[in-house]
Amino acid sequence: MSDLVTFGETMLRLSPPGSERLETTSEFEVCAGGAESNVAIAANRLGTPSTWLSKVPETPLGQHVVGSLRRHGIETDVVWSHRGRQGTYYMERAGDPRGSQVIYDRENTAFATAEAREFDIDRIQNARVFFTTGITPALSSTLRETTASMLKAARNGGTTTAFDFNYRGKLWEPEQAEETLTKLFPGIDVLVIAARDARTVLGFEGDPRQLAHKLGSQYEFQTVVVTRGSDGAVGWHDSVVHEQDAYDTDTVSEIGTGDAFTGAFIASRLDGDDVPTALENAAAAAALKRTIPGDVALITDEEVEAVVSEGGDDLSR
């Protein structure tokens, strides 16, 4: 059995090469990526056996996704569906002032119909951590019920529940997200949330340290991690707030940075590290991911340890 089990949708990302426009490109780069599978891969790469649960169309595109994740070493436990389609998204990359843009194409997917009864709940209850994100309940009313059921099942089995708030404005409005996600909070032990989401969606005020303390106190989480972009993160645990700066990095791709952070944080905590150490390792994993194209963090324990010990200096020297 895996120590970490994650649940969510993995899409196929199609991107024009370089900074070409979507409307004129004649070819696409294709890769699989989704928050929950990205977290599983990052944790697995750092020594935490991980399983990804999902519902996938039994089509070549669905098989492409599952095959891609298996090649990264995680176990996949999927419900194959003859109904619904494979979710995709398109990313046009560009620097300022044009900026990058993302277009989702994930209506009527097989995953949107996933119900808790379709999965082997023993996998969740035998894991040490069950992880999902706020993206999943944003995708359908069915998935709102499924997410709640899986969190409850994990708790009933004594499994620690971890949740990345991961608000996506292209999927739903702040008011709907707040109403839905705060109902899930009583079933969550470890919350990861961006400072901007705590302010925009939950209406909290204050600096990240204050946000972490308010969230932990109000909702009785075991641990709260508030990410603050290029300024790093803070972690609240046992009523103490710990700060962690971000490591300098030359960015190749920012996609999946937060997932690398979360996967490394979970892996570090499962390895017995305290919250400050886990934050250090998570920040190092995030910095490393930004040097890697694609959605997943192809990193090693040795690289993470080197970034921490060298303070983010160039590891090739």
Automatic annotation (TrEMBL):
Transmembrane segments: none
GO-annotated molecular function: kinase activity
Source taxon at top rank: Archaea
Gene3D superfamilies cross-referenced by the UniProt entry: 3.40.1190.20
Classification via InterPro entries: Carb_kinase_PfkB-like (IPR052700), KDG_KDGal_kin_Halo (IPR054871), PfkB_dom (IPR011611), Ribo/fructo_kinase (IPR002139), Ribokinase-like (IPR029056)
Domain Carbohydrate kinase PfkB span(s) in chain numbering: 1-294
A Pfam family the protein falls into: PfkB
Keyword tags: Kinase, Transferase
Record family assignment: Belongs to the carbohydrate kinase PfkB family.
NCBIfam families: KDG_KDGal_kin_Halo
Protein name: Sugar kinase
Organism: Natrarchaeobius halalkaliphilus
Lineage: Archaea, Methanobacteriati, Methanobacteriota, Stenosarchaea group, Halobacteria
